[in-house]
Amino acid sequence: MLARQLSSTLQRLATGFPIVTVTGPRQSGKTTLVRKLFADKPYISLEDPIEREFAQEDPKGFLARFQQGAIFDEAQRWPDLFSYLQSMVDNDRQAGRFILTGSQQFGLLAGVSQSLAGRAGVTRLLPLAAPEIPSVGSGEISLNSLLLKGGYPALHTQAVIPQDWFASYVATYLERDVRQVINVQDLTTFQRFLRLCAGRVGQLLNVTALASETGITQATAKAWLSVLESSGLIHLLPPYHRNFGKRLVKTPKLYFIDTGLACWLLGIRDDTVLALHPLRGELFENWAVSEFLKAHYNAGLPADLYFWRDNNGVEADIVFEVGTQLQVVEIKSGQTVTVDYIKAGQRSGAFADKTALTETPWLIYGGEDNYVRSGVRVISWRQLAPSFA
Question: How many CB atoms within 10 Å of residue 201?
Fold first, then answer.
């Protein structure tokens, strides 16, 4: 099993809360991780129809087996579980007693917020971050191969071809989850919607245009985007909220959590095609944004990531707060740091008062070296390991 950075956060929460909840996309490694960390607890999958039927017909008898605690996988499949757990943990507040996982974030978190507020520590596990992938640190995988393969653990631990795995993933997991939440009559239309989303990675979200090209209503497009976001497939990066006296772009930018899935949806099947693809720069930007998201979640923190763009074209690809100041990040996919790259890094903080910024803007690029040049911290993709712990 690959070491996961979320482990320390899970163990910390398990010493302070009677219930620990782990959300995240399917196949991101939730079950494997919690079963390893909490190996002394019985494991029950509520995807199992026999277990779920038992729970629904005789909930008290079902839960009587687990007085000392348990791992409940895909907990949102039995919504009444949360109310029963509330009573159990109110009678016995033993820390780390129950571990809940779920791949439909809004279903799981709705139950937690309604019945388990103050009783559950909540975390989110995304696919592998770059430091969790051995071939990144060893230099065995190229940037294009990493973008193409993505971060789902199975693609780094099993002899499976990415295009085969993603085809199965979309058919067996994503479409099933969507059908459990909303009524999708035509899966062909939904697949077209997915591909159109992939074609917009790193771009401002235009729901009207997206709906029109898909052939659906804006309301349907918003509902489908909500499902994709809650299932951990996409992330809508909001613009930074302070205006600094500027006219702001207020629309979020669309990213996929995993670049491998985005590449598959775009029809990119090998490194050679990706190297020449017109969206390669956006896919690299997507990857970098996702790495920052993973770092936040692995540390047990909310995303709290933003971008900046005003109507004069001043922009920063990533903005996040460091104490009372802001860190700005510029992302460039090229392997060589040019003068234009450095100028872009220097300009990335031009929107804010200098007192609001940290001293050094970051430039993440597709090369191998790390150094500081003309006041810009240059960071190789291979050694990008954001830490917010």
Answer: 25
> Identity (one letter) of the amino acid at 144?
N
Domain ranges of the chain: 6-124, 130-281, 307-383
- At 360 the pLDDT is 92
What pLDDT sits at residue 113? 61
Look at residue 310 in the predicted model and tell me its pLDDT. 81
The helix (H) or strand (E) run that includes residue 348 is: none
Closest CA to 381 of 134, 147, 127: 147
From residue 32, give the alpha-carbon distance in Å to each of 3, 121, 143, 261: 11, 19, 27, 21
Q: Which residues are registered as beta bridge partners of 237?
A: 253
d(CA 93, CA 16) in angstroms, rounded, equals 10
For 311-340, letters b (16+ CB in 10 Å) and e give eeebbbbbbbeeeeebbbbbbbbeeebeee
Rounded to whole angstroms, what are the CA distances from 114 to 86, 298, 379? Answer: 10, 25, 43
Q: 45-51 contacts: CB < 8 A, separation 24 or more?
A: 45/73, 45/74, 46/72, 46/73, 46/74, 46/75, 46/77, 46/78, 46/81, 47/73, 47/74, 47/77
pLDDT of residue 366: 97
Two tokens at 312? 């004069």
User: In order along the chain (389 residues), what is the average pLDDT of each group of 10 residues?
Assistant: 94 95 93 97 95 93 94 89 86 92 70 70 95 94 97 95 94 73 76 95 97 95 90 93 75 97 97 96 98 96 91 88 93 96 92 85 96 96 80
Q: For 130-281, which CATH class?
A: mainly alpha
Cβ atoms of residues 320 and 327 within 8 Å = yes
Q: Determine the pLDDT at residue 114.
A: 65
CA distance 121 to 6: 13
pLDDT of residue 110: 63
End-to-end CA distance of the chain: 23
Q: Which two tokens stand for residue 240?
A: 């930074």
pLDDT of residue 103: 79
The span from the CA of 16 to the CA of 345, in Å, is 41
Q: Report whether CATH 3.40.50.300 matches the domain 6-124.
A: yes
- The DSSP symbol for 174 reads I
Whole-model pTM over 0.70 = yes
